[in-house]
Specification:
Elements: E1 18-23, E2 26-31, H1 35-40
Antiparallel strand pairs: 1-2
Amino acid sequence: MPTPSCLACGQTEQDVPLVRIRFRGTEHWICTRHLPVLIHDPQRLADRFPGADGLEGAEHRDHH
């Protein structure tokens, strides 16, 4: 089994905290630094995360 690493930057759990995600039957890892990219602008990860180009980013709204 390969060492888990961030799909965006390649860092491992020895370097940064990683979060495991599943998408379309496959498992991926992303670091906490790049998690906002996945949430708000997933198309930026399309070259490393198959299917990301079809995802819509979440809108950020402040609730006061």
